[in-house]
Amino acid sequence: GDSVTQMEGPVTLSEEAFLTINCTYTATGYPSLFWYVQYPGEGLQLLLKATKADDKGSNKGFEATYRKETTSFHLEKGSVQVSDSAVYFCALGRRNTDKLIFGTGTRLQVFP
Amino acid sequence: EPEVTQTPSHQVTQMGQEVILRCVPISNHLYFYWYRQILGQKVEFLVSFYNNEISEKSEIFDDQFSVERPDGSNFTLKIRSTKLEDSAMYFCASSELGRATDTQYFGPGTRLTVL
Q: For every residue of chain B, which 3-state class applies, written as one string?
């Protein structure tokens, strides 16, 4: 069945460092792909999404490109801030179902 | 900005007791969902709800679980007889359109602890 695999955390970075959080998926066809972020004490918020191969989702300086050939949707940011400290979830969704399939989440800690 | 709210933020209960988790979805949304996350594990889909009936459910959502929209604003998840393994964070979500390709908006979660 469909699944999502994320790199394990925590990821610890200094402010202004480059961020990559890896996400790969297993699925047939062309699912939609999402990155959600959970700040402390808050719910899961959609960060960005991509609905077809080679689409790039972007928001708040974060980017991810839907790579069908490598079944990946890695999250990147050129310069992280302390306020980016959160848990990041990669997820997959299909048109023929209501359920999102999530990865385990990756905790990012950014220090000044 | 509209948001999904959940109450309580933390619920502690004894094994075998019934609990009701409450959610207020975004007002113009028609599709509602419950997910849960056991500590250290993935966020898992439980159930979706549309037009006052269950649209889809996972194998986790067995007879001890039920959902209801008792009025025009609340959406509830009831666990009839809690077990230790029900301890988890429960997330409610809503969306304007159905299917998992539409954006689902999540609440902050209710942490359920079963003793």
A: CCCCEEECCEEEECCCCCEEEEEECCCCCCEEEEEEECCCCCEEEEEEEECCEEEEECCCCCCCEEEECCCCCCEEEEECCCCHHHCEEEEEEEECCCCCCCCCEECCCEEEEEC
